[in-house]
Amino acid sequence: MSAVIIDGKQIAADVRTDVAKKVAELKEKGIAPCLAVILVGENPASVSYVTGKQKALAEVGMVDRSVHLPESTSEEDLLKLIDELNKDETVHGILVQLPLPKHINEDKVIMAISPEKDVDGFHPVSVGNMMIGRPGFLPCTPHGIIVLLKKAGIETNGKHAVVIGRSNIVGKPVSILLARKDVNCTVTMCHTGTKNMAEITRQADIIVVASGRPHTLTADMVKDGAVVIDVGVNRIPDASKKSGFRLTGDCDFDDLVGKTSFITPVPGGVGPMTIAMLMYNTLQAAEKS
Predict the structure, then answer these.
(1) Is 195 a catalytic residue?
(2) Which entry of 7, 97, 172, 259 is annotated as an active-site residue?
(3) What is the pLDDT of residues 127-137, one digit of tens each?
(4) Known catalytic residue: 53?
(5) 120 an active-site residue?
């Protein structure tokens, strides 16, 4: 058996094409969807993520109101900027790129963003809406995973899904979305406190790995024909690469490709979906406004 490698780049491109079409329709009505991305400091990974978001904004025809602040920016100044953007009716979505410098409280910053503009889906109001199935912004990576499963034609109804990881950004929300009636999986969550992880993962039809650690999932931990969604992005030193490193996920991809029915690669799997769903959320925010 050789797995179907799920092309996240292509599925994300399809989502962006659809968004671009709707952005053009909104512009004809005099509404220009606009996202403000705030970056504090020079974290290389964050700079690269923000650049990716800016490219996507240009591609779908949205207004880019990115703000790059120095590392030394005070919490007070950042909160003041968020307050101004909350009040600005031409701005539909606000995203603060995490992690923030140590002297700024991330929770305070997330709480400061108006739930109507919380296109990251991190505000407690957004999380609460997701929990009880009310309309609201879904977090981009978990939502992207659900879209990947649907677009790849993977049967989820009644399947056993195992999620490895319990972060607020991926593990917890994706568990909730997988259990929703429109996806209808039975969900088990594993984490650092799980005693018999391989025993549990071997029962899974679908495994979502978001542990933040390479080699978390190996071939001996999955049953034949399982579906594996790898959310990890880890930088591994590699002297043969110009950058000095290569990207790898949380799974042993080469090991698993011969045993799974579907698998996502890293890069080019879940990653592109995150930005595509951010564009989708910003479009929704503009439509609601």
Answers:
(1) no
(2) 97
(3) 999 999 999 99
(4) yes
(5) yes
